[in-house]
Specification:
single chain; about 230 residues; mainly beta; 8-stranded antiparallel beta barrel; 3 helices; elongated
Length: about 230
C-alpha cells in the first residue's frame, strides 16, 4: 500500500505543466536593446539603444558621431599666384539622451539629450608660398604672412529631433530616418594674422562679425539609420 502511494506521488509530481515545478517569472522584465548606425550630415555614428519602460515607449541611447576634413585647398588669386587654405573642419560628438514613442503603435519617436564635443570650432589658416599679384599689387609671401580664422562654440550642446524607425526593431534589422538640430549657443570669432593685414583695422570688425553670426546657433542634422536588434 505504501509503495503504491509513493509511486502515485512521483507520477503526480513529475507531470508536465505543474506550476509547483515552474519558476515564477511574473516579476521579471526583459529589457530589449539594439545597436544603431547613423549616416548623415554630422558624419557616421554608432549608438546603443536600451528599453527603460515596461511599456516599450521610453528608451535610453548613448553613442557618438564623427566627421572631419583637413585637406589643404589651393585657391587661384590670378593666373600666376594662389593662396593655400588649410581647413580645420571637424565634428566629433559624444551623446546621451532619450527616445520616446508617443504612440503605442507605429515607429514615430521624439529624441532629445546632451552632447559633448572636444573640438568646438571650425577654422582655416590661409598662407602662400609664392608672390601674389593682386591687380598690379605684388606681395611677397612674408608680406602676406598667415591669417588664422576660427568660429567657436561651447563644448556642451543640446539636441532635439524626431524620427521614424523603432529603437529596437521587431525583427532582426530595421531602417529609419531622423531629423533634428543641435543647439550650439552663440558663436565667437577668433582672428589672428601677421603681415600686411597688421596695418589695417581688421580686428575692429570682429565684434561686427560676431553680431552678424549671433543667430547661427543651431546645427541641423539629417541621418539615415540602420538598427540591429541584439539577442
Amino acid at each position: 500500500m505504501r509503495l503504491s502511494l509513493f509511486i502515485s506521488f512521483l507520477l503526480f509530481a513529475n507531470q508536465p505543466g505543474r506550476a509547483a515545478h515552474q519558476p515564477d517569472t511574473s516579476g521579471v522584465i526583459t529589457r530589449q536593446h539594439a545597436v544603431r548606425l547613423h549616416i548623415g550630415t554630422t558624419g557616421p555614428g554608432l549608438f546603443y539603444n536600451r528599453q527603460l519602460s515596461s511599456a516599450k515607449r521610453l528608451w535610453l541611447r548613448v553613442g557618438g558621431q564623427y566627421i572631419a576634413y583637413r585637406q589643404p585647398i589651393r585657391v587661384n588669386v590670378s593666373s600666376e599666384s594662389y593662396i593655400t587654405v588649410d581647413p580645420d573642419f571637424m565634428i566629433g560628438l559624444a551623446q546621451a539622451g532619450l527616445m520616446w514613442q508617443p504612440f503605442r503603435r507605429g515607429s514615430f519617436y521624439l529624441a532629445g539629450g546632451l552632447g559633448y564635443t572636444w573640438h568646438p570650432h571650425l577654422g582655416a589658416v590661409v598662407t602662400t608660398d609664392k608672390k601674389l599679384n593682386l591687380g598690379g599689387l605684388e606681395l611677397l609671401p612674408e608680406d602676406v604672412g598667415t591669417v588664422s580664422l576660427a568660429v567657436r562654440w561651447r563644448p556642451v550642446v543640446g539636441y532635439f529631433g524626431f524620427g521614424f524607425g523603432r529603437p529596437v526593431p521587431r525583427r532582426r534589422w530595421g531602417v529609419g530616418v531622423e531629423l533634428g538640430a543641435f543647439y550650439l549657443g552663440r558663436p565667437r570669432v577668433d582672428l589672428a594674422y601677421e603681415g600686411f593685414l597688421e596695418t589695417t583695422n581688421l580686428s575692429e570688425q570682429v565684434p561686427v562679425v560676431e553680431r552678424n553670426l549671433s543667430n547661427y546657433r543651431y546645427l541641423p542634422s539629417l541621418n539615415f539609420t540602420l538598427t540591429y536588434r541584439l539577442p
